[in-house]
Amino acid sequence: MAEMSPYQVLGVSEEASFEEIQSARARLLASLGADEQQQERVEQAYDAILMQRLRLRKEGKIAVPDRIRYAEQRAARLETELSLPRPAAQNSPWISRWLDSPSAPDVLWPAVLLGGLVGWVVLAPDEYPSLQLALGLMACIYFLYRKERRFIRAFLLALAGLSLGLMLAYGIALPLTGGDAPGALLVGITFAVMWLITSFLR
User: Fold this and answer.
1) Fewer CB in a 10 Å sphere around the end CB: N or C, the chain?
2) In the chain, which segments carry CATH 1.10.287?
């Protein structure tokens, strides 16, 4: 007795659609119960038909509907999608020229240095903190210069940070303290502004 073809095992014709083949396989597996040998036979027939149709499709001998997706096609598409670069956030060129994405050390070192200068002002409250402000300005110039190697730009940004910081410090601290703001508060607010400029501008 001749061995049955995979189509005969599933009980479908060679012209059967993919859905008909899937349906026949599911129906046979449900009717076989716990008969593992017969289940294996049905699975082998199903796999053989899929492989034959895949080969015929690659050779251009049959057309498979677009809605049918083989596992290797899905995997290849997913791999391609994962390898594509993600579109970066689109900033205007003006913003990109000025804003920086600092690393942790680029944020930490200015904070440590400027914080140390604030601590110095706290330890010497009777003196006007002109030396500390001058050192903070030089530190700000240095950290900005390291990013772009443009001294004039670094100097102007640092000077703008110092000016803005002092205006904010006097505008915030004096009304809150009734005109007698401690130097540490003024320097702290000023250096906070300078730290933001040093860390997030270039």
Assistant:
1) N
2) 6-83
